[in-house]
Amino acid sequence: MKYPTTEDGRYFVHRERLWRCTNPNLSEEDRVRLVRELMQARRAVKSAKAGGNKGELRKARARVNEVKIALGERGPCWWNDDSDYNRCLVKNTPYARWWRDRESSAS
């Protein structure tokens, strides 16, 4: 599924919240490798949950976080102006007008 992406490419919108996009400055090779690592870590989370292993679950969740930081989806912003609206409702951010205009043109 393709989500709407802000014009500056920083965020996509899902359920009216902004979510940080992957850093576009990553090489394709690095991005693909990191996405594979993320999927592997997510599978480890699922497995640890199913097995009830709290220690493994903690490790797997930490790995998901590490990879998301490496992808630029968490941690320091990959842009320079330090504004970060990750997980904010789009209507409460500087992207509100863009979102309203987009919504009204879709109707």
- Terminal residue distance: 20 Å
Tally the helices.
Answer: 3
Strand segment tally: 2
User: Quick check: average pLDDT?
Assistant: 95
Question: Oligomeric state of the chains?
Answer: single chain
Q: How many domains make up the coordinates? A: 2
Q: Using only CA atoms, what is the Rg?
A: 16 Å
Helix content: 40-55%
What does the largest sheet look like? 2 strands, antiparallel
- The stretches of 5 or more residues where confidence is low (pLDDT under 50) are none
Give the percentage of residues in beta strands: 5-15%
Strand order of the largest sheet: 1-2
The helix/strand order is EEHHH
> What class do helices, strands and sheet pairing give?
mainly alpha
Description:
With 107 residues, the protein is mainly α. It folds into 2 domains: 1-21 and 82-107, no CATH class; 27-72. It is built from 3 helices and 2 strands. It has helices at 28-51, 54-71, 96-106, and strands at 11-14, 17-20. A two-stranded antiparallel ribbon has the order 1-2. The radius of gyration is 16 Å and the shape is globular. The mean pLDDT is 95.
